């Protein structure tokens, strides 16, 4: 594990984040190779983190510019240390024994692999399967998690991996994640970009982790998917995919008796992204 570093992205999930840090250190990552990027914008919380983290762990407090910005900050610090691989984990993830070792060995054995991820279970390591990597629906290209058992497969190629837990080859990281998204889709777009550059993105069934998820705000879901399609999709998906998703959400809200506030947020996000096209700097 001496060539493996880790970035933990933390936003107001104290003290549970200490369990994530503990799992990573117990897996063999050296404390001086672990960076906790805290974008909580809370001086008291940062003080608590500094007090309870192992002294060699690097705590970096940054303004909240989103997940991608935090990941980029941490991985660049690991690059400066000359490390080859970087685990990226969000603040609630727990790792099963041997998970990080299996991920790093996959990167060693597959020299064209740029990103590898564990099987993610929901809520606990023995919880229901949340993600075995991701792909896109056939016509509209909507992102979806694969949620079927992979059996005894060693590795499986995927279009993208859930950003809660991914290990990267730093030689392939390049410019890293786009920071225009703020939250949701940035890892998806990054993984598609890696694959377009000839790299592999792999799910590793022998590695298991767990996460919790609170869903995605409707505004960011619609805005960011439209941003993604503006660069990575043809006319059909650029035009119809997000509106179809919004209509589906309208019907779902009506059936459940929910309000239409999230739908309004989604329409606002979609319109903003449509107005700028592929020029993400305007957002």
Automatic annotation (TrEMBL):
<keyword id="KW-0328">Glycosyltransferase</keyword>
<protein>
    <submittedName>
        <fullName>Glycosyl transferase</fullName>
    </submittedName>
</protein>
<keyword id="KW-0808">Transferase</keyword>
<dbReference type="GO" id="GO:0016757">
    <property type="term" value="F:glycosyltransferase activity"/>
</dbReference>
<comment type="pathway">
    <text>Cell wall biogenesis; cell wall polysaccharide biosynthesis.</text>
</comment>
<comment type="similarity">
    <text>Belongs to the glycosyltransferase 2 family.</text>
</comment>
<dbReference type="InterPro" id="IPR029044">
    <property type="entry name" value="Nucleotide-diphossugar_trans"/>
</dbReference>
């Amino acid at each position: 594990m001496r060539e493996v570093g880790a970035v933990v992205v933390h936003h107001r999930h104290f003290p549970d984040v200490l369990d994530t840090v503990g799992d990573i250190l117990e897996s063999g990552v050296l404390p001086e190779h672990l960076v906790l990027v805290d974008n909580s914008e809370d001086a008291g919380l940062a003080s608590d983190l500094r007090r309870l983290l192992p002294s060699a762990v690097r705590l970096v407090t940054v303004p909240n510019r989103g997940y991608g910005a935090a990941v980029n900050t941490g991985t660049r610090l690991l690059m400066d240390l000359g490390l080859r691989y970087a685990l990226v984990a969000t603040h609630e993830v727990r790792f099963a024994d041997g998970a990080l070792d299996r991920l790093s060995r996959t990167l060693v054995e597959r020299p064209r692999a740029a990103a590898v991820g564990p099987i993610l279970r929901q809520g606990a390591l023995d919880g229901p399967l949340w993600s075995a990597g991701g792909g896109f629906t056939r016509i509209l290209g909507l992102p979806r998690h694969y949620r079927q058992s992979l059996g005894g497969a060693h590795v499986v190629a995927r279009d993208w991996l859930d950003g809660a837990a991914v290990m990267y080859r730093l030689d392939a990281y390049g410019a890293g994640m786009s920071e225009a998204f703020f939250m949701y889709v940035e890892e998806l777009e990054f993984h598609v970009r890696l694959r377009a550059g000839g790299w592999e993105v792999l799910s590793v069934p022998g590695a298991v982790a767990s996460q919790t998820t609170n869903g995605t705000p409707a505004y960011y879901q619609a805005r960011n998917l439209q941003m993604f399609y503006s660069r990575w999709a043809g006319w059909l998906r650029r035009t119809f995919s997000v509106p179809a998703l919004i209509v589906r959400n309208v019907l779902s809200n009506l059936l459940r008796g929910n309000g239409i506030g999230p739908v309004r947020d989604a329409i606002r996000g979609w319109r903003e992204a449509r107005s700028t096209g592929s020029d993400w700097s305007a957002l």
